[in-house]
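Protocol step 4 of 6.
Sequence for Zn(2)-C6 fungal-type domain-containing protein (Talaromyces atroroseus) entered exactly as in the expression construct, tag removed. Do not edit the line below.
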Amino acid sequence: MLIDARATRAKSRRGCKTCKIRRVKCGEEKPHCVRCSSTGRKCEYDVSILNLHNPLSLSPNTVWRERRSFASYFQHTAPYIGGGLDVAFWSTVVPQVCRSEPAIWDAIIAVSALFETPEPPAPEFGPLSSWKKGQNHRDALAWYARSVSAVRQRIERGRLDIFVGLISCILFICIEGLQEGVEEAMRLYNQGVCLILTLRAQIAAGVVSATKASLLEDTIVPIFDRLGAIALPIGTRVHTLQRDTIDASRQEFISLKAAREAAVSLAADVQFFEYICIEHLRETGASHVDQELLGQQTTLSARLSSWHTSVTNLLDSLRAKGLLSPQQTGTGALLLAHHEMLYTIVRTCTYPSLTATDAYLLNYQNIVEQSSIALDASARSDGTQPPYTFELNIGVPLWFTCLRCREPQTRRMALALLRRAPRVQGFSQRHSAVDFGERIMVLEERNAMKMNAPLTPLSPLSQSPSSSSSSSRISRFDPTVFLTTPNHEYAPTPHSILSDINNNNNKISAAALIPEEARIGPVSIFRPQDGFPRGTTEQDIAKWKMRGPKQIFLRLSWNEHDVESDTWRTVHEYVPTTF
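Step 5 output, structure tokens:
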């Protein structure tokens, strides 16, 4: 859906009689337009115009459901969809726009209806397509279709205001996310980025008001930056829309919102740094990265430290003044959990050994602790989480903990909290994250128990790819089949690694019971249409049996020990997935 930057408003030729008499723009909602309804005026249309409209809107019962959904939006959707820091945008700005834009009205009530729709069953109980949809869900789909149709008609006629198109794009991303329409949501995201760049050009030309310009940079751009931080493909630098790089080392934050935007900027840089380190280690086979990357690590560590100091000072100041609300406490906990994750990534991604993360158990425990606080603060009145959020979400650091922390109790606590997180964050589905995180945990622990079977508490454990005295306890470790097996076939075994800990009386640390060879390295995601990972061969592509360029692949890695040469190598494998 392409937006014409020259789109302008035009007079309505199908408006109601009342708006025509008053010589004001009619939104053309049927059977009563929003303008008349909001001012208590009688609203009438010519019969010929009513007959052209979708029969869905002619039912008084449908009108009542629309108004009920709009009222529900203020109570159940606006306070949660963007998190506590963006409530004004969702509670004030978006509803104001819908007064004159029917497409926004329809998108709002569609989002509201989906927020009220009971959560669909987990994938193991059947595909979403077979789920029997209730009235709220059917209404949401009808209103969404009507909104999309209205936007398209405005585009075709060259009458769509770009700012309105951008807000509709944000609402459509939410609707698609709740429908598990990841591909469409990402297409909308890319379209939104183009709209932002077009609006900036208009702002520079002086044809956009200062109010809209401020709203764009202060609220809408950060929304897209947060979406971009978790968008596919993972293995490329995130394109930030922020005009200036936020340097947390040179400022004190005046608000939690400023701290959040700085955290997003840091996350983008840390993610790209980790990717560069992984590729360097893969290509060189070295035991550590070069001096240039170590210098970047030092710089990122300093930025993270300064950010943490600034946020801690801000929270202490608010607390001392009695201004730290429960919602702000939750936001602070959310930001601190993300900091612990980013810090751990920066400190461990310069080594090929997957056991390097074991030294950061305290950081993982802090993630779990802060996540619990954040989830309690973001819960709705009935104790549940909102089904969707544009906010930085606790799901990301919790998923990170599920994959990287091998201490079983902490890992399981993170998995339990992840199950409480919002169902959708941006483009990410919670059930996929939980499913994959649990598969990795079970896979690693099963193989660890096989490897450790002949060990006694005093036996040495192979813990580093650089170790020269280690011996391989399995001939081949291939997780790909296990990770693509249906859920009911990989249920956790009755004998868990927790019992190994108790049997050994803690003489061997919990994390150490999962040796190097049993661990899965950092997971990345790619699609062929975005380009193949470096080092991909024709043989790799031939065996993938791709369904198309949009097929999503997981890139897995693990360290494998060669007994004869007593050397280590990192194995990479690519798994097609629907996660």
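Step 6, annotate. Residues 291-320 form the longest helix (30 residues).
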